[in-house]
Amino acid sequence: MEALKKLLGDSNSKLKKTSEHFDVKIYNFSIPAFNDKLTGKITCPFAIKKIVNGEKVGCGWYCYAQKEAYNWIQKALTNRYEATKQDNFIERIINELNGKRTKKQIYVRVHDSGDFYSPAYLDKWVKIAEALPHIRFYAYTKSHDFFRSITLPDNFDITFSTGSKLDHKLNKVIEKHAEIFNSIKELKKAGYIDAHKLDLYTTKWYNDSNNVGLIMH
Questions:
Q1: Model pTM score
Q2: How remote is the C-alpha of 113 from its chain's centroid?
């Protein structure tokens, strides 16, 4: 499969709006949501996708990153997924970020599509963050257990997404997590910080609570 010259995206519409609001620069890295449509390989191993009493249950069916806006870039997403498995992945991301020319604080949203599909893959992102302490990395993830046995560098922040096969282990008092609500009113009544329009409100740099609220797409 043809290799991509660049692995990082220049942000989707939400991230561009967030960049402008906070006067920062956000890049994003994406792989296929739930599974790679071209190979069938699972990319979100803890996402729920099942049928209960004839009803579809879980983000494996409904994830926004499986909708039409992402369908036309499936080949590029597959290329990025394949790149993550190569020995030079860490080097490529580091070199690409070192080549960015901006005076603004750089953030990298890891996986606006996809997830950490293995501990070995997560370790690659940890090594990237360790090599670039001036850049801030953040992600939502349903792969909660991968993080419970490691210590992340200070410039790498994680929010546990609910709707995971591991939700039964989630301690919402001490673990930062994201809940999806039907409305802003419902979100605020529950005591969550609204991150549905400005993405950096999920991060520790702009949100000192463990409660991140999103709105159903």
A1: 0.90
A2: 6
